[in-house]
Design brief:
The chain has a 5-stranded mixed beta sheet with strand order 3-2-4-1-5. The longest helix is centred in the N-terminal third of the chain and has 14 residues, at 2-15. It has one domain: D-Maltodextrin-Binding Protein, domain 2 (3-Layer(aba) Sandwich), CATH 3.40.190.10. The protein is of the alpha/beta class and 136 residues long. It contains 5 helices and 5 strands, in the order αβαβααβαββ.
Length: 136
């Protein structure tokens, strides 16, 4: 019985975690709307609000990815897979570049001032990156 209580205690904690949309400290952008975030990460636009070409990148973390896309596009994992299959097949877009570690992600952002990503807010290191938006 304790096992089930533990599961029910953990699920709400994850569901309430915040996700931060982040860019390089050098990025020439300081704010972004949820509409822009959605369009950029779903390849509906290739440009950041400042007009620069966006380079989308994301950590290889299915839990955060699932929560992020559910919040910005209302798509679950199955819908998102179907969406990307269509976008790739029609040549209209590609999913964000996938990165394996937070250190590698921060290096990528530092080297590419037009790169944009998202992470669980607990991973934010404001000495290395700039937070544009927090999804609650």
């Amino acid at each position: 019985m304790w096992f089930f209580r533990a599961i029910f205690c953990v699920i709400p904690l994850f569901a309430s975690s915040e996700i931060s949309v982040i860019v390089s400290k050098k990025a020439q952008i300081s704010t972004i709307s949820t509409n822009d975030i959605s369009k950029i990460f779903l390849s509906k636009t290739k440009r950041l609000p400042n007009g620069e070409i966006a380079q989308t990148v994301e950590l290889d973390d299915e839990n955060v990815k699932s929560e992020f896309y559910q919040q910005i596009s209302k798509k679950n994992q199955k819908q998102l897979r179907a969406y990307w299959a269509t976008m790739i097949f029609t040549g209209k877009g590609q999913p964000p570049k996938s990165i394996n570690s937070i250190e590698e992600l921060y290096r990528y952002l530092e080297q590419n001032q037009n790169a944009i990503s998202y992470v669980d807010s607990s991973f934010v290191d404001s000495t290395k990156i700039k937070v544009l938006y927090v999804i609650k």
